[in-house]
Amino acid sequence: MDTMAGIKRTHYCGELRKEHGGQEVVLCGWVARRRDHGGLIFIDLRDRSGIVQVVFAPEMDQEAFRKAELARNEYVLAVRGTVKVRSEATVNPNIPTGEIEVYCREVRLLNAAKTPPFYIQDNIDVDELLRLKYRYLDLRRPEMQRNLILRHRVTKAMRDFFDRHGFVEVETPMLTKSTPEGARDYLVPSRVNPGKFYALPQSPQIFKQILMVAGLDRYFQIARCFRDEDLRADRQPEFTQLDVEMSFVERDDVLNLMEEMIAFIFKEAIGATVPLPFPRLSYDEAMARYGTDKPDTRFGMELIDISSAVQGSDFKVFQSVLDQNGQVKAINVKGYANIPRRELDGLVEYVANFGAKGLAWICYTDEGIKSPIAKFFSDDIMRRITEVTQAQPGDLLLMVADRPAVVATALGQLRLEMARRLNLIDPNKLSFLWVLDFPMFEYDEEERRWVAMHHPFTSPRDEDVEFLGSDPARIKAKAYDMVLNGTEIGGGSIRIYNRDLQEKVFAAIG
After folding, report:
1. CA atoms within 13 A on the CB side of 157
2. CATH hierarchy code of domain 145-270
């Protein structure tokens, strides 16, 4: 194998363009693809910036051509050559460097490579365990490198933004004391104190509040956190979060700043424009309209309360639910009245997974209304249902009747499922919003007492403080979640800073 002695890289592979034509360059990278056309050899050379085509011909350099014959995929090369602008007929529009190629005059074979266990390219169908076993190869794939580079751009933009707004970045301890939080701690035994353990932090919560008490005023940290919990799509043992704390501010100060930060990051990292301000929904409104506190607002199909419309009908299933203070809600699946009966039966099973005891439906066809429950409704009730749901010929109504919590969950999940099936979700759309005014408390049926929905240090709304001792269900918290495309990507709250108020909250939860 050759060495790098006397040769030094001048450019990255993906940087070269027409304006570099005629320049001598030195490139270093991996063989992504090699094509032998007899008198010519073409090698696609890859580094983190992209791919460029390198041309080897014996008349340019016999030794370089001989070495190109030896090269195989994933060999590591250093190439010296001249940038040539391609003719119009040979331009490759699929890559940024497609208007040029490099004619090689010297090549160094820096390292050979065995045949890799999978192709080093995007969109490969490879078992994840195999990818993880050969992680160093997986990370060569352009998709993975783009992810890492994007992450770098995002964290850099965060630091730039907060620095401009007077924040101080502080690294808080990684070895700390175990404190009650939402998951189990990872424990680290202490060598100097046998039998004692450190805990890895689930969040920098206590430390950042100490910093506020100390007068630092505005703190942020891109913090590594550890939680010993079962793996899920959005859960893993260690993760990185942006952690922020501010003193002497109100809720809207925090929301406005976070919106500005998101807009700045998207502009800096990917060149996207995020419209401001974000829409705001109360928790109650989000649950009523979407059946979830993290709604995906990239499409409509909102939940519609038809309880009053069906009140007094002869359909006993609906009426018994309403008599027990339940509710009946529907979604209007526009243009899907021709749904196959087999699919309808499958939807009944689908909502059962979320606690629903059944699923009613009405099809508005050109021939009229088709539904097994239509016979229980008078003309007046059918008219009210049609009006409140704005149903038209071609539409399909799907209805759930149960306790409000069951209706919200089952119909909210069904809304998402129908949107996926009908391709109603634009994958390129960014739909941000805030969900505000969460309930301060929720009732624990097992413990038969009120518990904090978020945590007991969240401040109640000023207008709700008077109900602390009498009506906990009525109290809303100064808590807020940022939601993007149906996923909660951030959240926080205004903390209690008054001892008397904190004691009242503790008293309310026993």
Report:
1. 18
2. 3.30.930.10
